[in-house]
Here is the input.
Amino acid sequence: MTGSSDRIPQFFATPGYGDTARHTVHASQAVRIGQRVETSGQGGWDDDMVIADTLEQQIDRAFHNVERTLATAGASWHDVIDVISFHLPDGGVIGSEDTRLMVARLRQRMGERRPTWTQIGAPAFGLPGMRVEIRVTAIIDGHAD
Here is the structure.
C-alpha cells in the first residue's frame, strides 16, 4: 500500500552543474514521485557548464550526466523505461552519426533492456555549441542487475 507521501514530488539537483542550474535558471535536474523519476534534459556539459567539442564527446557526457542525475534521485539506467533525445539536425534530418552513437551508448548502459526511445530534431538549445540533450523517465523497481 502506498501512502500519501509517495505522491509528494521530491526535486533533485545533480551535484556540480545542477546546483548552478538551480540558482541561475530556477530549475531542478530531476523530480521523483514515489518510484517514478523524470529528468530534465541533460546535455554534453561538464560541472562548469562547458560544452564538449565533438558530437561523440557531447553524447558521452550527456549519458554520464543522465546517470549522475538518476543516481541523485535514487535510480539508475537499469530503471529507465523511456528516453527522449533532442538533436540539432543537419539539413532538417537527424544525422546517422547521432543515431549510431546513441544506439551504442544505449546498448552499453541498458544491456538487454530496451526502453522506448524518441529522437527529436531541435532548432536550438539553451547553451552555445550544444548538439544533443537527453531526457529520461525511470521506474525504480528494486530489481538487482
Remarks:
- The first strand starts at residue 10 and ends at 12.
- Residues 9-139 form a domain with the 60s Ribosomal Protein L30; Chain: A; fold (CATH 3.30.1330.40).
